Automatic annotation (TrEMBL):
It comes from the Bacteria. Keywords: Glutamine amidotransferase, Lyase, Stress response. This is Type 1 glutamine amidotransferase domain-containing protein. Gene3D superfamilies: 3.40.50.880. Belongs to the peptidase C56 family. HSP31-like subfamily. Residues 25-218 form the DJ-1/PfpI domain. It comes from Marinifilum caeruleilacunae.
Length: 224
């Protein structure tokens, strides 16, 4: 049975009081697709424990259903710390989005090392939307960045401008990925778009989370 580690943010507010946190739909939709296909899931965050979520997201009916699910909410409200994780137990790591990811996961060396170990153990590294920020500082044993020279996507600069957050975020993710040497591509705002480059699977935006999950499941089945 395959096992996937969800790596989520611990960040909630910046110095100006802007709330971000984790975008739970990008957790819940892949979570249920994996669970119904027999995949085991664990959660890790930089600080461990409860994952911060904006009130607006908590009002979403699908998110409410996720939190009513005792097993799912227990895992989400009691995430592991990086020190608790044995990367050798996982077949993939997945970085969901939410603007909070941009503040802490690129700076978290331990989670970056977990992702690198999973990848170098012939596992998969996946991200959707702002979750791509978690890929920025993942370095392999040869000291190269995992995403250097890889085809990928993430929330685009034009989408950031469209929702008025381009002046709030600590950096523009599309730009940062390109600066790391990634071969970035995207579609028009809010369109479903997933890029598969070997064992790196990335989705552009919230519309892409289910397709990302399907591509990972397809990759698992090919390895059998």
């Amino acid at each position: 049975m395959a096992r996937v580690l969800f790596a989520v943010t611990s960040h909630f507010k910046d110095e100006n009081g802007w709330e971000s946190g984790c975008y739970v739909l990008e957790v819940a939709i892949p979570y249920y697709h994996f669970i119904k296909n027999g995949i085991e899931i664990d959660f890790v965050s930089p600080n461990g424990g409860e994952v911060p979520v904006k009130q607006l997201d908590l009002d979403d009916p699908k998110v409410k259903c996720f939190f009513k699910d005792k097993e799912a909410s227990k895992k989400f409200l009691n995430t592991y710390r990086p020190i608790d994780i044995d990367a050798g137990k996982y077949d993939a790591i997945y970085f969901p989005g939410g603007h909070g990811v941009m503040y802490d996961l690129p700076l978290n060396k331990e989670i970056a090392e977990i992702a690198a170990e999973i990848y170098e153990n012939n596992g998969f590294v996946c991200a959707v939307c702002h979750g791509g920020a978690g890929l920025l500082n993942v370095k392999l044993k040869d000291n190269s960045y995992l995403i250097s020279g890889k085809q990928l996507t993430s929330f685009s600069n034009q989408e950031e401008v469209a929702i008025g957050t381009d002046e709030k975020v600590p950096f523009l993710l599309e730009t940062a990925l390109k600066e790391r040497g990634a071969k970035y591509s995207c579609k028009a705002n809010w369109q479903e778009y997933v890029v598969v480059d070997g064992r790196l699977i990335t989705g552009q935006n919230p519309a892409s989370d289910l397709l990302m999950a399907k591509e990972l499941l397809k990759a698992f089945n090919k390895k059998k």
